[in-house]
Amino acid sequence: MKLLKKINRDYLLSSALVLLFGLMASYFLINQLVFSEIEESLNASASRIEKQLKQQKKIPNLYPLIEVNVVKNLQHIVLKDTSIYDPIEGESEMFKELNTYRNINGQIYHITVRTLTVEKTDIVMSIFLGITGIFLLLIVALYFINKKTASSIWKPFNENLERLRTFSLKDRKKIVLQETGITEFDELNSRIAELSEKVVSDYISLKEFTENASHEIQTPLAVIQAKTENLVNSQSLTKDQLEVLYSILENINRLSKMSSTLLLLTKIESAQFSEPEDIDFAPLIRDNIDAMKELFDLRHIKTNIAQPGIFKVKMDRTLATILINNLLKNILMHTPEKGEVIIKIRQESLVFANSGKQALKDKERIFDRFYKESTAESSTGLGLALVKKICEVSNLKIDYSYEKNMHLFMLRN
Amino acid sequence: MKILIVEDEKNLLDSMATYLQKEVFVCEKAANYFTAEDKLAAFDYDLVVLDITLPDGNGLDLLQQIKENHSETGILIVSARNSLDDKLRGLDLGADDYITKPFHLSELNSRIRAILRRRKYKGTNVLKFNEFRILPEQREVNIHDKPLSLTPKEYELLLYFITNKNHVLTRQSIAEHLWGDYMDSADHFDFVYTHLNNLRKKIKNAGGKDYVQTVYGIGYKFIEQ
After folding, report:
1. Structure letter (DSSP) for residue B181
2. pLDDT tens-digit readout, A224-244
3. How close is the nearest chain A Cα to the Cα of B135, in Å?
4. Where are the strands (E) in A26-158, listed by range?
């Protein structure tokens, strides 16, 4: 719910309650006032009639307003409401009626004065209508006020919101927000600005750290590798010792690949490869397959490229190359001997299919860093993470599925 | 052949020198920019192995100096960075080749040899080893003066062996030399073994000797008998 809507709703709800209370209060107040006023005026009329009677003047009989009768006994004064049919109006009307008994010049007169009163329901109705009118006016007024404030108060706020939405760490710029002139918003803005500045600087230092760490690791690795290789060349080593040394060399290699792949991931994240151009994937795939032909042949894996369409994507060429290279390396590693690889290039999708005995167990996680299902020791567990990352930054979708003894990786625009 | 190795990591510098000195190289070492600059001013080198990240200066500046004052000297850049930027910048400035840390010493040696062949002999040189005659420019191999027909990979393998003769070559280093970047996952042994077997057969059929000795569990060695 919008803030304004919420404020207005609460506001109107409480106004309605207050108005309802006001309605009841006004009713009692008005009723009271009118009643006492009527009583006063009826009493005054009775007194005036009495005065006339004392002066022996004739009182006209104005039914139903005035009735004067001679009675035998004095009785108590009675004030009551009564309904009388008015032949002129043709309907029953509510009257306030005062019955007094006066002893004037030895005769007892029963003086009845009546006056037309407003019915209670009429009072309630009129008050209700009045208040509802005010209420409606309030809503209309609020609507216009909000419309006006929305454009003045909320404009800078919305603009700032847009700036927040487009904020990206990759630009390495802190958020600069517009001044709103409203204390709460400006307070929020300055906190956001501070926060973004901190986030950006943390991000940069983390990136730098990752890059430096990846680079710095390579030199000691080079030392270990060079020393081990020189050791391998010394004459007096036993077979077991050589095997240990080879294992060391293999793991140096793995560590080095891991670190350079992590570095590559970091670089892709920080958009260091972002020169998009139209990439036609077919030649890229053919080049890669050609380069790897022997590797596939040696394991008797058949490769087959079907091209019913042209798959084109606007992305960085280096990234496209790394993407294809890593997908194919992954396929080469996980296709069993004498297996088959089918690559289908369509306009809307690019599918890499390779034979495999069973579906991957946890297909949600295959693109995670360091997630491995195979026991292949040389795998870094980063190949598919790299593929996924490249897809992400290039607005490509990649999905894995398993059909008819084939693993399928589908790329879509 | 005289080469200068510029590398600030002393351990690595020594290991490189140890390996390369076994090849008929005279190796000079410089552990920083200052020493390297001094040595370059005093002597002529056939090739400089240059680490571009030095503590007291930028290796790329040294590269420029070498280009200006010793245009005959070959340059092989060594860097911990494998970023494309660095690679291109180094090659733009006139380096002959680029190798990324960590590297196999045998690969380093084979890159150095390739640069020297290109620069020193302008492609006219012939690599001779017993009954083998290799013409690197034409990528041709002769055994007992008869041409030997090899696939590109077999040729590379033979050249790699002869360049690094008497050194143990690990399966991993051979696989990487032959397939580069495509080779980080597959089983090294099978691939190398298959190619090596084909090569051995062809050499044997052409009347050549089998100089390749298996170093069990690790790789192979090309022995000069």
Report:
1. G
2. 999 999 898 887 888 888 889
3. 24
4. 66-71, 78-86, 91-104, 107-116
